[in-house]
Design goal:
The protein has 2 domains: 111 residues; 149 residues, no CATH class. The protein is built from 13 helices and no strands.
């Protein structure tokens, strides 16, 4: 299903402006980063043999990563060899596992997404203007606002990082949040305090308008809500198309959630609460 969605969006992009073509590249890049991080997580647990079974084969023709080499890689050196023709290689070669075969996966992930967001922002600014430029920048920056919020919560809870280390793991060049707000969240003593700070920002008010079970639900729910709004009210094809992809992708996730809920005989109320609406 995700494959059909990808091909549908790719076809639409061919009939629109250069920014839409760039958005297609952005989708591919985010898929590549997802797979790189998934591989590195498996590598850290010596489970790389599981990688290929969940790899989205439909992106093989659109990526510069050597998928065959990646599927057979057993260590970081072989992984680097598989990615050396990709846009991510210069970042990835800066890292190496420690003596316990551990990698700073959060640091790697942040640098990779920083590259992807940087290229996307540069493209939008170079190929759009006026309302289209404003809508695209605001859309992606707001999504990143909530990614920053979720990341701060996660890094504080699970990694116990210092405020400076947390800040170093955020995409701060692509956000509507002020430096003061980010500093306050990084230095906050509790999750409740982080929530309070975020809710006092302009975009943070969306938290009160969505239903969520876990803090990790907030970012995808905001993204879905914004995308649906864009589909209904934007007059710019590029904004509508990327929003359509995000909405369709979310609805696919909801279908999977419903199937899994039935499979594991979850109470219907629990399953419904997990759906992104």
């Amino acid at each position: 299903m995700r494959q059909n969605l990808f091909y549908e969006f790719d076809s639409l992009c061919r009939y629109d402006s250069s920014v839409s073509s760039g958005l297609s590249s952005y989708i591919i890049s985010t898929l590549e980063v997802e797979q790189i991080i998934r591989f590195l997580i498996l590598l850290s647990s010596n489970s790389t043999d599981k990688f290929i079974y969940q790899f989205p084969a439909y992106i093989s023709k659109h990526t510069e990563i050597d998928v065959n080499k990646l599927a057979n890689a057993k260590n970081y050196e072989e992984f680097l060899n598989a990615t050396q023709s990709s846009q991510f290689y210069d970042i990835l070669k800066q890292f190496s596992p420690d003596e316990k075969n551990r990698l700073p996966i959060s640091d790697i992930e942040n640098k990779l997404y920083n590259l992807v967001f940087g290229k996307l922002t540069k493209l939008i600014k170079a190929t759009t203007k006026g309302q289209e430029k404003h809508e695209l920048i605001n859309f992606f920056f707001t999504i990143n606002d909530y990614n920053i919020f979720s990341r701060i919560l996660r890094l504080k809870k699970y990694y116990k990082l210092s405020p400076d280390d947390i800040k170093a793991n955020l995409l701060l060049n692509y956000t509507n949040l002020s430096e003061k707000t980010v500093d306050m969240m990084c230095k906050a003593e509790s999750s409740g305090e982080i929530f309070s700070i975020m809710q006092n920002t302009h975009n943070g008010r969306l938290i009160d308008k969505i239903g969520y079970v876990y803090a990790s639900d907030i970012s995808p729910r905001v993204k879905y809500r914004l995308a649906r709004k864009n589909m209904h009210f934007s007059n710019n094809p590029s904004v509508v198309m990327i929003s359509y992809v995000f909405v369709a992708e979310t609805e696919l996730m909801n279908i999977v959630t419903l199937i899994e809920g039935t499979r594991y005989e979850l109470d219907n109320k629990i399953t419904q609460s997990l759906l992104i609406k």
